[in-house]
Amino acid sequence: MRIYHNQLSSTLAQNLSPIWLIFGDEPWQKNDSLHQIKNAAKSQGFDELIRFSIDDKFSWDDLINEYCAMSLFAARRIIELEFVSAKVNEAGVKALTEITKQLTPDVLLLCHGGKLDGATTNKKWFKALSAVGVYLPLYDLDTKGLGMWLNKQIRQYQLNLDRQSIDIMLSFFEGNVLALDQELQKLSILYGQQAINADTISELVINQSKFNPFALIDALLSGKTDKCLLMLDQMQQEGVPAAKIIFFINKELNQLKQMHTQLQQGSNIAEVLKLFKVWEKRKPLYQHALKNGSLENTLIALHRIADVDIISKTTSDFSPFQLLADVCICLYQSSKLKPLSLDFH
Q1: For the whole model, what pTM was predicted?
Q2: Which of 32, 64, 177, 238 is least enclosed, having the fewest CB within 10 Å?
Q3: Domain identity same for 78 and 161
Q4: Which residues form the DNA polymerase III delta N-terminal domain (predicted)?
């Protein structure tokens, strides 16, 4: 059974599964998920917690022995498995599949770790566990999702923030849900249910947004060049290597080039998205990029990012982040930038 974080509370209210799989890189959702599951289990008499860290040196016999053992301290137990690596050896596959064949209502298996790729979720051990348990993949919240989450947390903490204050919080903490929740807790302690305006928020809150190349690509595809510039500035301050960003943008531009070529050859957008196996959730981003961009713009952007790559590897005084901003603008506004050269030597 597969659910998402916003379905966890209702799922726990209906049934406490004997196996839980919590995997993803978003820290607030992971902490909250583990907390909710453990609290629900505790309310049903699971008073003992045993933890194992799963790596390539782990003895799977220890897990089997613990799962099958009678507890001296509690009638019901939680066995928590933190997967440092999702690579499970043959002994691990055997142990985990064996557990699914001898489930007991007195032991809850709580597995968690980083983000899993498609190949891992198709492994025998994972399919065996998810077939009898609950899989909760954790994804970063997009702008809309973060807004919905923030409004929910504001109600939970009984805070009184005006619309402008909420917009400031969203701007400051985009991509850093854990820090945003900590800030809300601080506001709850300091102000309780008092009205909090934008001036107060601006004075108290430190800009803790954390952007990554994937978020930058999403903003670029959706044509939000102003957001791209903000992200590039933030990533430069956070010390993100320019080479990493160049790699991601160059890769995306090359794919857009191939997509535009397909369109010019007579394919429609739906056919192109299917050909390139674009996920349903990301289709609106590519639809915008293909409708509002052009092959000519993309070729110019590719030429300019090649220049940026060369300049970033030289002793040029120009910041590669400023030049990357030029590339982002160029994808939709190449006619304005085409006459300008990036040859700053």
Answers
A1: 0.64
A2: 238
A3: no
A4: 21-131
